[in-house]
């Protein structure tokens, strides 16, 4: 606890060299911040959800979470309860990122102002798909989100592949394969693989269309 206290109270050096004292929270991007957030949210959110809303499944990674509700009324009730719970724990839900989202597909055709969300780099939205008989229908599916795609394109362009042309292909592959394999293992699932194929065009100066995000019928924070 001594070292945790020191970390929380340590001042932050700003880009201009000035030192800023901190009164609350942990520094954005700090190496121990995710660990402290997980420890705190385990009690503030995970244990509380299982105790207070045992019938609502949820997933949480660090400070991002998705709660799967059956109806809009249930989602709105949960959102209000979460706001009170976090206020009791001296926390505030992000007003733009905490919202009720409708999982629209061929079976759920209702209207709702919000039908998409992004979670851990994936954008969930209604997408066209084919069933086993080749018939088109709408499913609520993930794909790599716009911001994640932008970061991938920037990373690929930063490699300046044309400048490596004098190198043997085996040397280029040895350098790039670990990065590409990691991206594929994380992002290359189902419909996401088609998006990654488009991203690869950026390495040769190609352009790709950006899919617009849409989402999940739950309460995501």
UniProtKB/TrEMBL annotation:
For the region Disordered, give the residue spans. 200-221
- Segments spanning the bilayer are none
Q: Which PROSITE patterns match?
A: RT_POL
CDD domains given for it?
RT_G2_intron (cd01651)
Which residues are in the Reverse transcriptase domain?
Answer: 1-124
Q: Report which superkingdom the organism of origin falls in.
A: Bacteria
Matching entries from InterPro entries are given as:
DNA/RNA_pol_sf (IPR043502), GrpII_Intron_Splice-Mob/Def (IPR051083), Mat_intron_G2 (IPR013597), RT_dom (IPR000477)
Query: Which family does the record claim for this protein?
Result: Belongs to the bacterial reverse transcriptase family.
Q: What is this protein called?
A: Reverse transcriptase domain-containing protein
């Amino acid at each position: 606890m001594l070292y945790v206290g020191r970390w929380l109270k340590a001042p932050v050096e700003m880009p201009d060299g000035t030192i800023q004292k901190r009164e609350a929270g942990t520094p954005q991007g700090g190496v121990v911040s995710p660990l402290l957030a997980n420890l705190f949210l385990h009690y503030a959110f995970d244990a509380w959800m299982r105790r207070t809303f045992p019938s609502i499944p949820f997933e949480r990674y660090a400070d991002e979470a998705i709660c799967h509700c059956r109806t809009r009324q249930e989602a709105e009730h949960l959102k209000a309860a979460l706001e009170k719970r976090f206020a009791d724990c001296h926390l505030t839900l992000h007003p733009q990122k905490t919202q009720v989202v409708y999982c629209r597909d061929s079976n759920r055709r209702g209207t709702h102002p919000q039908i998409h969300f992004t979670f851990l780099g994936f954008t969930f939205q209604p997408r066209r798909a084919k069933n086993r008989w080749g018939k088109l229908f709408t499913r609520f599916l993930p794909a790599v989100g716009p911001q994640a795609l932008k970061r991938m394109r920037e990373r690929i362009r930063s490699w300046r592949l044309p400048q490596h042309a004098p190198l043997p292909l085996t040397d280029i592959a040895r350098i790039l394969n670990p990065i590409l394999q990691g991206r594929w293992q994380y992002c290359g699932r189902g419909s996401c693989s088609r998006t990654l194929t488009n991203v690869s065009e950026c390495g040769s100066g190609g352009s790709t269309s950006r899919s617009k995000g849409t989402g999940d019928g739950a309460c995501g924070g």
